[in-house]
Amino acid sequence: GATESQLAQVEAMRAEVVKQATEEMLRSFDQSVAQRWAAVNGNSDEVGRAISQANELRETIQQFGEGSAQVAELLKLHAAETAQDAQDAAKSEYDSLKAQMDALEQQRVQLQQQAIQEQINAINEQLSAAKTLKSTWEGLDKSLGQSRYNLFAGSANLDAENRLGTVQAEFRRLSGLALGGDSDAAGQLAGVGTSLLDIVKQTAGTEEEYL
Question: In this structure, is residue 76 part of a structural domain?
Answer without folding.
Answer: yes
